[in-house]
Automatic annotation (TrEMBL):
This is Uroporphyrinogen-III synthase. The keyword Transport does not apply. It catalyses: hydroxymethylbilane = uroporphyrinogen III + H2O. It is an enzyme of class 4 (lyase). Signal peptide: none annotated.
Amino acid sequence: MSGEAYAKTSASKPLTGKCVMVTRERSQARELVEQIEALGGEAFAFPLLKMIPPLDYKQLDEAIRTLDTYDWLIFTSVNGVRFFCERMDGLGVAVQDYAGRVAAVGPKTAAALEERGLLVEVIPSDFVAEGLLTSLQTALLAGQRVLLPRADIARKLLPEKLRKMGMDVTEVDVYQTVIDADMAPQAAERLQRGEIDAILFTSSSTVSHFVQAMSSWITPTWLDRVHIACIGPITAQTAQKLGLQVNVVAQEYTIDGLLDALLKNLGGESHDKQI
C-alpha cells in the first residue's frame, strides 16, 4: 500500500487523532488497547488495579473441598473464575467434576468457565448483578446452597438479595484488589498537556483508584475537555459521586458496548462496522 493510500485509510478510522486512557488491570488491558488501535486511536495504558491472591485461604479452601455440597456456583467476573480455578488446581481438585448448576454474570465470564469444562446455565442479558438476579429467579429454590467466589471489594447486593430469596449463601474471597499507581506521574503529565481525549472506566474500583492515585497530581480543569466513559450506570454513579463529569455510559455493559458508546459520543461510527 502506498504512503498516500495508507494515510487515507488511517484517517478514515473513527479514533484517528484521539488518545484514549485505559484504566483496566494490567493483564486485562491488552484487548482494549488493541481495539482502540484498530480504530485508529492511540491507547495510553494506565492500569490502576493489581489483583493478588487472598491473605488467608482457609475459607476458600474449605469451600473448594466441600464444593459438591453446593447447588449453585455463581461467578461475577472473569478474574473470579481465574483465581478460583487456579486455587482448585493447587489443591488437586478438578473443577469440571462439579455436578451442580453454574451461573455467570456475562458472556466472557461464561466463556472462561466453559474453557474449564463447566456448563453455564444462566447468563443474563444485562451484565450486572441485578440482571443476574432477574435471570436466576425462576431457577432458584429456597434453601439451596449458593457459592459466590468473588473479589474482596465486590458489591454486596447479590448475596444480600439471594439471602432474602431464601438461599443459603457462602461468599469467599478468591482475590484482593489493590491500587496500582505506578503510572500516575506519566498520566498526570499527559492530562496536563491536554493529550488525553477520553478516559475509559470499566468498574467502580477503577474510578475510585483513579481519583486516589491522581489526588496529588491532577486539577479539575485538566479534565474539562476529557470525555469520561463508563461501562455502565453503577460505574457512572461512582464517578459522579467522586466529582467526575460523566459524558458516556454504555447501554450494553461490555467492552464492546463501552467502545460503541464512546464512538457515538465522539461522532464516530459503531466499532462493529470498523473492524
